[in-house]
Amino acid sequence: MSPKQRTRKVANKTVEQATEPIAEAVEPAAEPVVETPEPGLEPVSELEQGMEPLAEVLGRAERAYTAYLDAQKEVATAYKANELQVEQNYKDAERQANKVCEQVLAKALSAREEEERRAEETYQAAIELAKQAEREAEETCKKARQQIDEAYEDSVSQTLQTRKEMIEEAWTVRTKTIERAWKIYMRETG
Q1: I need a surface site. Which of 32, 39, 58, 119 has the fewest CB within 10 A?
Q2: Distance of alpha carbon 114 from alpha carbon 121, whole angstroms
Q3: Cβ atoms within 10 A of the Cβ of 14, count?
Q4: Which residues, in sequence order, are CB contacts of 33 under 8 Å at separation 6+?
């Protein structure tokens, strides 16, 4: 039963208790009984007889007021208990929120660290690939230079060979031309 329901129950019970005596007191009084005094006793006046029910009503009213004060204390106690329970619930919720927050932050940090690790691995792999590409490019360049050098040397060698052959041929033509010229000169001069 919740504190609010307990408070209502206690308040209703107190109101019922408080109204019962008053209802009894409000009921019409019975006809005053006039007793005949016994010998040796003094007769009771109507005023004294009316005072007795009034004293009862006052007694009941005092009891009702006391019950009301007790109910009020119970209500205050119930409110205080409710307040403490609400405070405890708040603290529990706050603790739970902090716990969830810490878990989420830990997961986020872990995910961040994992992503940074992957990024570093990717970076290192890219650097390694770049170094490999650089080595391959250097090797390709070296081979190309070697081929160029070989082609150059072949070209130079061939050109020198062609030059030599042309010079030799020209020398041969010169020599033959000079010999013919001398032969012709010698024939005519001679």
Answers
A1: 39
A2: 10
A3: 20
A4: 49
Residue type, 189: T
For 19-40, write each residue's pLDDT tens digit: 444 444 444 444 444 444 455 5
Residue 114 falls inside a structural domain: yes
Is the residue at 67 inside a domain?
A: yes
Give the domain extent around 116: 3-26+57-127
